[in-house]
Amino acid sequence: MRITYDCDVLVIGGGIVGLSTAYAITRAAPGTRVTVLEKEPGPARHQTGRNSGVIHSGIYYRPGSLKARYAVRGAAEMVKFCAEYGIPHAVTGKLIVATDRAELPRLHALVQRGRENGIPVRELGASQIAEYEPEVRGLAAIHVGTTGICDFVAVARQLAHGSGAEIRYGTRVVRVDRRPELGVAVLTASGDVVRGRVLVNCAGLQCDEIARLTGDDPDMRIVPFRGEYYELARPELVRGLVYPVPDPAFPFLGVHLTRGIDGGVHVGPNAVPALAREGYGWGTVRPRELGSTLAWPGSWRIARRHWRYGAGELRRSLSKRAFTEAVGRLLPGVSEDDLVPTAAGVRAQAVLRDGTLVDDFLIREGPRTVHVLNAPSPAATASLPIGREVARRALSAL
Ligand SMILES: Cc1cc2nc3c(=O)[nH]c(=O)nc-3n(C[C@H](O)[C@H](O)[C@H](O)COP(=O)(O)OP(=O)(O)OC[C@H]3O[C@@H](n4cnc5c(N)ncnc54)[C@H](O)[C@@H]3O)c2cc1C
After folding, report:
1. CATH number at residue 160
2. By the 8 A CB rule, do 229 and 289 touch?
3. What is the C-alpha separation between 249 and 64, in angstroms, rounded?
């Protein structure tokens, strides 16, 4: 049987990971025909366009993990990519500040981890914090030199442009028909069929659903965690990036203060369960999606294991005063009036059946298919190496 393919590699998802994959494929194998299908009218409308905009150094991640390797390499590459294409960015450095004695051992462990990952770290006593951030208080801190900020939406646009791929916006994939000996045909919401030899699933918040449409059992579910942000009305209170010491039980970094490339300071994100995959506020509820989250045993196991942490996050989501108090531990001069609500983001966090929050990036293959099943922070920072790895796997499946 002779089949006409519309492309060699069909990528679902026009976020930074899908676009970086398309970019890497056309660089590694010029002439390969790549089509990206994105349901929104433009690139980067979900996680990629709703994050903290931080180029992470890689300090937090277990040495040897994909996150550590790709973040360290990816941060340097991201700075170079931005410089090459005139994309707004800056290498600002950042502070991680301990405000409680119980956090001191974890701060020291981070210093160690940073050194293992080859990241320059300076340890600071309480009085030295003011050298960097006069309004910030803490018992001790570390300064990480290689952290930066950039405009990830502009990066995604440049990757789309530079990839030479055909990018079809406003194209939602609703069905997948995969024949291991032939290739993949997808049906779009408008009734078109697009055929490719290999499928790459970079659907972010919907990646587990796309995996299931191909017939693969991903053995995980995306549990969406919303991160809410405020804008600081007095941005002069913060010079750069200020983070708390993260709780190692969670893959989230805690509410931080980040001066973005536009000069504004964002405060957030917290981590609360979203009631829809794209649930950017408490008012957005999608019963089918919520039902699928609740039907996953892992969701209940997280709730049982981490209810105390979750209750604190919920309280800080529902009460601005509670949120302000939490921020005040780092920045005592902040008041409720200084915090102006701004757009939230939702993290696509993979959760296993036993309730494990998948920590590392997770890339899986099926016949003629590559699935990116866990690409939370720092995947925007690490998007160039991730894209190359996904591209390598897709090209070897051709
Ligand atoms: C609150 C928050 C803060 C963060 N802060 C940082 C940070 O400071 N630094 C950092 O490095 N990372 C950060 N991250 C993580 C980073 O944003 C993500 O890791 C990265 O954007 C993931 O990119 P993606 O392409 O996988 O997903 P996305 O950007 O979500 O893209 C997936 C795309 O798939 C499309 N799609 C889904 N289903 C379909 C379908 N059926 N058909 C067609 N298209 C479909 C969606 O519309 C979407 O555009 C943060 C994330 C959040 C949420």
Report:
1. 3.50.50.60
2. no
3. 19
Q: Which of 261, 229, 242, 258 is nearest to 332 (CA)?
A: 242
At 1 the pLDDT is 62
Which atom from ligand 1 is nearest to the alpha carbon of 19?
25
Q: Domain count of the chain?
A: 3
Are 214 and 230 in a shared domain? no
48 CA to centre of ligand 1 in angstroms: 4
> Which of 145, 167, 186 lies at the terminal end of a domain, its last residue?
145
Q: Tell me the pairing of strands 193-201 and 94-98.
A: unpaired
User: Which of 46, 172, 226 to mutate for ligand 1's pocket (most ligand atoms within 8 Å of CB)?
Assistant: 46
Ligand 1 contact via 226 beta carbon (within 6 Å): no
Helix (H) or strand (E) holding 392: helix 383-396
Name the β-bridge partners of 227: 345
The first and second tokens of residue 226, run together, are: 């919303």
| One domain for residues 182 and 208 | yes
Question: Distance (Å, rounded) from C-alpha 343 to C-alpha 126?
Answer: 33
Instruction: Report pTM.
Output: 0.97
Please state, for a pLDDT cut of 90, what percent of the chain lies above it.
Answer: 94
Nearest CA to ligand 1 atom 15: 377
**Is there an atom of ligand 1 within 6 Å of 119 CB?**
no
* pLDDT, tens digit, 9 for 90 and up, residues 255-286: 999 999 999 999 999 999 999 999 999 999 99
pLDDT in tens, 130-186: 999 999 999 999 999 999 999 999 999 999 999 999 999 999 999 999 998 899 999
Q: Are residues 236 and 213 part of one domain?
A: no
Ligand 1 neighbour 15 (Cβ under 6 A)? yes
Atom number in ligand 1 closest to CA 372:
26
Cβ 16 under 6 angstroms from ligand 1: yes
Nearest-CA residue for atom 39 of ligand 1: 203
Judgement on whether residues 263 and 331 belong to the same structural domain of the protein: yes
